[in-house]
Design brief:
There is one protein chain. The chain has 124 residues and is mostly helical. It is 52% helix and 0% strand. The chain contains 4 helices and no strands. The chain has helices spanning 19-35, 57-64, 70-85, 94-117. It starts with 18 loop residues before the first helix and ends in a 7-residue tail after the last helix.
């Protein structure tokens, strides 16, 4: 399910809703749905295995108009690294990030396996 929250107050002013507040609303909404017999969870993107970062709104909209310079600039940076160093410089901390992700995925997989063994296939 996808839900849209209009971030506008009664006075017409834009509300500044923090991510933590949105997360809490999602969790409460899922609890209310479960109370009415609807299977619902409020999981974060990372917990669902969605690891690709979202593009900034401006980058996304420019790409839709085919006017984005974002990918051209990134490709130029890689080409520059290759011409200067003969190799692409790895992003700092990326190896640790990938290892942490592997550990998290392994942990979730173990939990899913345990749930299957307990007969909770849908929850797994």
């Amino acid at each position: 399910m996808h839900m849209v929250v209009r971030a506008m107050g009664y006075d017409g002013e834009r509300l500044n809703i923090r991510k933590a507040a949105l997360r809490a609303w999602r969790q409460k909404f899922a609890r209310q749905l479960r109370a009415h017999g609807v299977a619902a969870n409020a999981t974060d993107r990372a917990a669902r295995g969605v690891t690709e970062p979202r593009k900034l709104d401006g980058i996304y909209r420019a790409a839709q108009r085919r006017e984005s310079t974002h990918w051209r600039q990134r490709a130029s940076a890689v080409a520059r690294d290759l011409s200067i160093n003969g190799d692409v410089t790895a992003e700092p901390g990326k190896a640790q990030l990938l290892e942490t992700r592997r550990q998290v995925v392994r942990g979730w997989s173990e939990i899913a396996d345990d749930l299957v063994r307990q007969g909770e296939v849908q929850l797994a």
